[in-house]
Design goal:
- The complex is a heterodimer of chains A (324) and B (316).
- In chain A, 31% of the residues lie in helices and 23% in strands.
- With 324 residues, chain A is an alpha/beta fold.
- Chain B has one domain: MetI-like (MetI-like fold), CATH 1.10.3720.10.
- Chain B has 13 helices and no strands.
- At the A-B interface, helix 2 and helix 3 of A face helix 9 and helix 10 of B.
């Protein structure tokens, strides 16, 4: 499998009144063709910002991509002008995004037709009626009924789940190579979540696209992702295949995360163990391991030394830890 | 939309009735007796004459009857006969109205175009030199008194430089260039506040819209900045802007009283003030009603615009 997108040492910092927030601090990952990859972590660990950085959609100021490269189709797309034609061609055309909040991610004043067709008008070489037909077809595909009529409705006439289906249709509309789904089901109820994830994974394989799912829900990850990146405080602290991570988690944080998830395959009435403490304040952080204060396996090295780089273990499994 | 429009139309009608009632009451509450003033001018105030005039003006009837008579006649376009001029009030108003409409419309147009544009530029180029300069100017514009600005302009452009006529009014259909030249200073001093407030409100409303999730979605689609600004951002900011334009209409109609006097223009505002001084209650209540009518009309247009802009309001 060839690598489609490669992120190297990405650093996105926010320059606030209280100090520098290193939301993404040296993150590297990649995605292959037709692959589903998950980026996992708690709220505020920089997983969303790292994805927005790829698209150059971080609001500047206060945010700024201070270092790193994003290789896509043989070039570093972070070097492109954020508002320029080339970057616009990638956004929505080659890489598209689905956002967390279906209720607010659609423009309330424009019809679904308008919002679904505008990306196609920019990226596809089709005429008006072809675009219209494709829009209808896409809505059928994501499971919206009575599409001929409903395409002229406004967002407020749809439920949250329906709106997220429309977002999926929009993301797929220009045959992108990669779809980045930023917590696509977090705002929805559980049954809707399952339907939508099933739909997404089906359509992604049908369109031969790759999918990056950003989530804090490990259940989603276990079911759909081939590879996983676990993030903590702006860095990737462990990565590997789903089997490696779930089978033999190495980093104390990853193990802590898995201990918080209820499992059906354990017999005893084992109690769920929450991770002690809370995520650190990202303003003006110290350069050592950010998990140090919460870690049960910490050693003297962890306090003294810089945050360790990802170390190879077996297969695709990497971990960033002094103690393991 | 039809249901929405109809409902707003009924609201407008009710408001109009209340307005007419308030106008009538307010005018009647003014001190002084118009009949005495009228007779003073003609200098033969015998008790018989007073009683005769009272009957003639219908002032001997109870207030509710007077009100009804007035409203019924007004609906037929008869506002009564001006006490001072001895001609029908409607013809006085008809003469003054074009002046005020011309003045207020120019000021509204200038403030809307310049204010929205400046606010948009400030919001999109937020934090730049241009934004700072325009914001400071807008703050200044809000605080400058209108009549003072009027005098300043007259002194500078009329008296010192001699570029523009210092007062007066000409109908555009009589002498177009003269009318434009005479309109520049009054319109500018009148719309100074409106430009500034429109700039400030547009800026803050656009800045709020820009942060919305759906704008990020629009960027993520790869649309050009121009498309995003005009299709997504401006449209969503329009609700606030349209509300402000409605407020501006009220404000301009109120302020044009001062401006018309400073620049000696024979408009509705001047007619109002002069009618008060002359105790010409017929002309006063007629002119007040017309001003009220325009304000109610502008509110109606604003309401209809809401429906046109926002489908959620339309389908309520």
């Amino acid at each position: 499998m060839t690598t489609l997108l490669k992120v190297n040492n990405l650093k996105t910092h926010f320059f606030t009144h209280t100090g520098v927030v290193k939301a993404v601090d040296g993150v590297s990952f990649h995605i292959d063709e037709s692959e589903i990859v998950a980026v996992v972590g708690e709220s505020g660990c920089g997983k969303s910002v790292s994805q927005l950085s790829i698209m150059q959609l971080v609001s500047t100021p206060p945010g700024k991509i201070v270092d790193g490269t994003v290789e896509f189709e043989g070039r570093d797309i972070l070097r492109l002008d954020p508002k320029g034609k080339e970057m616009r061609g990638i956004r929505g055309g080659k890489i598209s995004m689905i956002f967390q909040e279906p209720m607010t991610s659609l423009n309330p004043l424009l019809t679904i037709h308008r919002q679904l067709t505008e990306a196609m008008e920019v990226h596809l070489d089709l005429d008006r009626s072809q675009i219209h037909d494709r829009a209808i077809e896409l809505l059928d595909m994501v499971g919206i009924s009575d599409t001929d009529k409903r395409i002229h409705d406004y967002p407020h006439q749809f439920s949250g789940g329906m709106r997220q289906r429309i977002m999926i249709a929009m993301a797929l509309s220009c045959n992108p190579r990669i779809i980045i789904a930023d917590e696509p089901t977090t705002a929805l109820d559980v049954t809707t979540q399952a339907q939508l994830l099933e739909l997404m994974s089906d359509l992604v394989s049908k369109f031969k696209a790759s999918l990056i799912i950003v989530t804090h829900n490990l259940g989603i990850v276990a079911r759909y992702a081939r590879r996983i990146y676990v993030m903590y405080a702006g860095r990737v602290i462990e990565s590997g295949t789903a089997k490696e991570i779930f089978g033999s988690p190495k980093h104390p944080y990853t193990r802590g995360l898995l201990n918080c998830v209820p499992r059906l395959d354990t017999k005893d009435e084992t109690r769920l163990v929450p991770i002690a403490g809370s995520i650190p304040n990202l303003v003006n952080m110290k350069p050592n391991c950010a998990f140090y204060s919460r870690c049960q396996h910490r050693v003297e090295e962890c306090k003294r030394e810089y945050w360790p780089v990802l170390r190879h273990i077996t297969g695709l499994h990497h971990v960033s830890c002094h103690a393991c | 939309m039809t249901v929405y429009t109809l409902r707003k139309l009924i609201h407008t009608g009710i408001v109009l009735i209340i307005v007419s009632f308030l106008v009538f009451i307010a005018v009647r509450l003014l001190p002084g007796d118009p009949v005495l003033i009228y007779l003073n001018e003609t200098e033969n105030a015998t008790p018989e004459k007073i009683a005769q005039l009272r009957t003639e003006f219908g002032l001997d009837k109870p207030i509710p009857i007077q009100y009804l008579n007035w409203v019924i006649n007004a609906m037929q376009g008869d506002f009564g006969k001006s006490i001072y001029y001895d001609i029908s009030a409607i013809s006085l108003i008809a003469e003054a109205l074009p002046v005020t409409i011309y003045l207020c419309l120019s000021a509204l147009l200038i403030s809307a175009v310049a204010g929205i544009l400046a606010g948009l530029i400030c919001a999109i180029r937020r934090g730049t030199y241009l934004d700072n300069v325009l914001t400071v100017l807008a703050n200044l514009g809000v605080t400058i008194p209108k009549f003072w600005l009027g005098f300043l302009l007259i002194y500078l452009f009329g008296y010192q430089l001699g570029w523009l006529p210092i007062h007066g009014y000409t109908h555009p259909w009589d002498d177009f260039w003269m009318s434009v030249k005479q309109m520049i200073m009054p319109a500018l001093s009148l719309c100074c506040f409106a430009i500034s407030s429109t700039t400030r409100i547009t800026r803050s409303s656009i800045l709020e819209v820009v942060q919305q999730d759906y704008i990020r979605t629009a960027w993520a689609k790869g649309l050009a900045e121009r498309t995003i600004v005009f299709r997504h951002v401006l449209r969503n900011g329009l609700i606030t802007i349209v509300t402000l334009l409605g407020v501006n209409v009220r404000f301009l109609l109120g302020q044009c009283v001062v401006i018309e006097i400073v620049f000696n223009m024979p408009g509705l505002g001047r007619l109002l003030v002069e009618s008060i001084f002359r105790q010409d209650y017929i002309a006063l209540q007629g002119a007040s009603l017309v001003v009220g009518l325009f304000i109610v009309l502008s509110n109606f247009i604003v309401d209809i615009s809401y429906g046109w802009i926002d489908p959620r309001i339309r389908q309520e």
